[in-house]
């Protein structure tokens, strides 16, 4: 049985048993926070429990490395929608130790692409179109550097209101312990 078939089978039971009822909430985050974190499988349940957030509390955005790689990319757009349309007042970038984006070998990823059927012609066409795949696939040397870079890009964004706090944290994916790197207190209301 394919994984999708298992999911669909589970979903039918989930809906028939009305297991969704305790999870009902609305689209507005009750804690008025956005969390940008890594897609690492160890964080799926650990991060919300370690941070004390439940369904409906926050807007949760996940990607490889909790990286905001472009000021006008989809991650930043999601953050701005959460702020302006959904009432978020704080943003937390949460990286984690042992992240696969730390020291990512771009050349190794490109070789795996070739092995899976992406032709050199496609890669050359992208490079000729101005897409630097080595930059696009780049991670960071240390998780702290990645968190700081993302916090800087978010907090300095020209469309982000100055009263939104942007924090940076690093999580231990074994214990859930959070280390605060950046406490992004908003300026006083009269400044």
DSSP strand tally: 5
Averaging pLDDT over every residue, what do you get? 94
CATH third-level topology of one domain? Beta-carbonic Anhydrase, Chain A
The order of strands across the largest sheet is 2-1-3-4-5
CATH architecture of one domain: 3-Layer(aba) Sandwich
Our measurement of the CA-to-CA distance between the termini, rounded to an integer number of angstroms, reads 60 Å
CATH top level of one domain is Alpha Beta
CA radius of gyration is: 19 Å
CATH superfamily of one domain: Carbonic anhydrase
Are there runs of 5+ residues with pLDDT below 50, and where? none
Quick one: biggest sheet? 5 strands, mixed
How much beta, percentage-wise? 15-25%
Count of individual helical segments: 7
Helix content: 25-40%
Q: What is the N-to-C order of secondary-structure elements (H for helix, E for strand)?
A: HEHEHEHHHHEE
Specify the overall morphology: globular
Summing up helix and strand content along with how strands pair, one would put the structural category as alpha/beta
